[in-house]
Amino acid sequence: MDRQAFRFARAALIVAVLAAAGGAAPASAAISGITGTTFNFTARDGFLANPDGSYIYFWGLADDGGTGEVQLPGPTLILSQGTMVTINLTNMLPEPVSLVFPGQEGPTQPVYDANGRLRSLAQEAAPSGGTRTYTFTAGAPGTYYYQSGTHLDKQIPLGLYGAIIVRPPIAGQAYADAATAYDREYLLLLADLDHRLSTAAESGLSFDSTDWIAGYWFINGRSATDTMSEDNVPWLPNQPYGAMVSMHPGETILLRVLNMGRDPHPFHTHGNHVLAVGRDGRLLSTGGAAGADLAEFHFTVPAGSGQTWDGLFTWSADNLGWDVYGHAPGDPMQVGEYAPDHGKAIPTQTPYLTSLQYGDLYSGSPLLGQTGPLPPDHPGLNQTGAFFYMWHSHRENEMTNLNDFPGGMMTMLAIEAPWVPIP
User: What is the pLDDT of the chain when averaged over all its residues?
Assistant: First the structure.
């Protein structure tokens, strides 16, 4: 299939998926992951299905207590603060593998080679069936990760990593502080990959990591446009986590942004700034009863390599100067509506239909939750009248799949009207 034909086929698939979902791709208010105290993982290889038609070789982790499919990223661990956790690792890869859990409470036992040089940050599971057990105590609330502690410049980019979420005793808060309360939460795990490393690993060849040039970029193990499909779609068996974000006006969503890539990935949220309340699993506070007094608004989340951010995002059409619902003066307010603009008409005349350029996600109406007439050839993807904002890496080349746009580190935020249910 040539590239143009592939693009048409991909577009048709997206239309079919979104139409079956009733418009916008569904998103979940809860982060997909696994809970408990004992987990059995197997390190194996597999292939990632990418929207440009390629299949990329990777190393990942499978949850033996779940589907058993090797996945990218590894299973997200959702833990309660203070829980003692055990990870049993079986290694089916051709070289030793280990796991480390930065920020968690537990011993780390480095491994040195015969010359006294550090070989691994933790005890290893031998290749082709070796096992190793790791224990730690889930520490302070926040967003963390786990990763390989062996041959870091190879095994981490190939996919041996995953997210850890530690919850405080109070539900609905990122930390044990009321300033971090939220209505919905989403995990956006950012990563990059040089496909030449993938090819070399598949062939059992070495790769010069100093010559790193990433060509693929992921959110939750997927490149756009697959980022906008729901969790656990059958055509992505090794990439179970979607990255589509949905909310109602006036709600607060908690964004857990985590960068497991080699490069920094400044992540931009159109529609509003993000109020960063935590970094690297710590509340941004001077301590005591001060709360998140060091919280700061970010136009773009500056996600450095190995860094995590916890941020709060809200949207209520503040200061647009017109009523996004089309209310007349005296109409009742909607939940989450920006009161000063209630009942104000759009301060411009809507152009004639023949003068409009229709985007695929235009509903036919400029009003939230409303639809209108569309041209006969329009795909009609937005059946709920949602407002859509693109969220993406602000390094523009990272919105491609090996230089093919659109792709890479990009997803969407859907603002749904208050009466539209969000799963």
Answer: 91
